Amino acid sequence: MQTQTKKPSLFKKVTRGLTIGSVFTGNTLIHSGSIVGLGLTKLIKPSAKIDETNTHLANNWLSVNNWMIDHILPDTQWDIRIDPELKLELDGRYLMTCNHQSWVDTTVNQYFGRTRMPLTRFFTKWELIFIPLVGQAFKILGFPMMKRHTKSQIAKNPELKHHDIMEARKSCEQLLSQPFTLLNYVEGTRFTQEKHDKQKSPYRHLLKPKAGGLALALHILGKKIDSLVDMTIVYPDGVPDYSEFWLGEVPRIVVHLRKIDIPQWILDGNYEEDRQFRAKFYQWLSQVWLEKDALIDDIKTEYHRKTAS
């Protein structure tokens, strides 16, 4: 049984949609345009001050979005749970894993992290670079952009694989000059029941994890980060799409964060060159995913019981 919410009138829904759409678009254009303009000046004179200013602009960008969430979507209930062992600071350095169900996940991450963690970057598709202003702003801000080649493309040209690794390594290393949160959606794509069934995933609520990106990030950054953070997002009333979120049609969102201890053997290993290490790393990650799957099950059961009572 799901929580029953009062449906807004058509007029209120349209008005809210137009208002949010206008503010969201204006906020995006102003801040992404400023980041791109300032970033281009680095071609003339590289400066750490420019990077610092662009990060400040990006945080302002998120702050406006978060203000809208707090004031225009007041009916959405946030249940944020942080493991006591996890200490978060705005000047920290974090790697983060997260389950992925909807485009809303990134907004949830940014809403949570804005006042608790450094600006979150995440691995994204190279094709994002072609979105006017936004794509270029992400590139300037240091979001690792990956060209996803098929197995057949790599078979024809093995250098493509090495090129991707070098680009990811370069992006990760550039983050070390500042506080950062680097997010990896380990499943590699959004969860759907169709994908779950096609994969024959052993998890109830998750797709199979992809180990390569996380292994690479840990190899490059693992000894220099403060924590490996696992974020779990649960929508007790059903996974929303982006428009449903911004129209205030998501009653409840649960965010759970915990610290994952990184074994020393992971920090000392080489995922690309050592087949035995790859197998052991995937086994370790699978255990992390089993724990995450059980956590999602517990949270959903808890909320279903609350709704039933």
Descriptive account of the structure:
- With 309 residues, this protein is of the alpha/beta class.
- The chain has 11 helices and 8 strands.
- It has a 6-stranded mixed β-sheet with strand order 1-8-7-2-6-3, sandwiched between helices. A two-stranded parallel ribbon has the order 4-5.
- Helix 1 packs antiparallel against helix 2 and helix 1 (10-40) crosses helix 4 (134-140).
- It is globular.
Shape: globular
Percent of residues in helices: 40-55%
Tell me the total number of β-strands.
8
How many helix segments? 11
For this entry, what is the oligomeric state of its chains? single chain
Main sheet attributes: strand count, strand direction, barrel closure: 6 strands, mixed
Chain-averaged pLDDT? 89
Provide the gyration radius in Å. Answer: 20 Å
SSE order, one letter for each helix or strand: HHEEHEEHEHHEHHEHEHH
- How far is the first residue's CA from the last residue's CA? 10 Å
